[in-house]
Prior knowledge:
There is one protein chain. The chain has eight helices and six strands, in the order H-H-E-H-H-E-H-H-E-H-E-E-H-E. By secondary structure, the protein is of the alpha/beta class. It has a single domain (about 40-210), classed as Rossmann fold. A four-stranded parallel β-sheet has the order 1-6-5-2. Helix 8 (about 185-195) links the parallel strand 5 (about 170-180) and strand 6 (about 200-210). It is globular. Mean pLDDT is about 85; it is low at about 215-225. The structure holds zinc ion. Zinc ion binds next to helix 2. Zinc ion (ZN) binds near residues 20, 25, 31 and 33.
Amino acid sequence: xxxxxxxxxxxxxxxxxxxxxxxxxxxxxxxxxxxxxxxxxxxxxxxxxxxxxxxxxxxxxxxxxxxxxxxxxxxxxxxxxxxxxxxxxxxxxxxxxxxxxxxxxxxxxxxxxxxxxxxxxxxxxxxxxxxxxxxxxxxxxxxxxxxxxxxxxxxxxxxxxxxxxxxxxxxxxxxxxxxxxxxxxxxxxxxxxxxxxxxxxxxxxxxxxxxxxxxxxxxxxxxxxxx
Length: 227
Ligand SMILES: [Zn+2]
């Protein structure tokens, strides 16, 4: 029956071709025109606890719509489009494995997948780096971070990630996340990995808001619930 489901899928693709999440045009879930218009995020000092930190693009309307389609409309294939674009934008970091930022079990059950893991899977293929999606675990529900102020957010997330793998974690890790806000989650992941023996922790993320008013963590425009 495999050939039949394959055929059916091809027919459905013909009848309902992918529409771009940002402009509604043809050419895939995120069309080449919209990808070309994404604004590269400037290099900035990594969050303490990270050896390097690279963000693909400024969190604008196009990125917001693409991530919304991935996370809330649950179009997992959007992770492939975003992963391809990010792998083209950023060079593969020196590392032994990619580790997606874990999603809390409750949120995972609700959504059915971890968007950071989907993204890491595509980056893994494109960069030729292994993915290590089990081992780093989110210890407790850190709640909806978006509602917390920056300082609260940092204490809320600290110590929330623990390495639970049967073996030691990879020595050189690249954390993968979708939207970077204060960096508190990445710092907590890095602390959990280092406590278990990881020596180098780098991070890549799809996007980050450019202007973050002090104390709020991220900008008014382009607000986005982290997680
Ligand atoms: Zn488009």
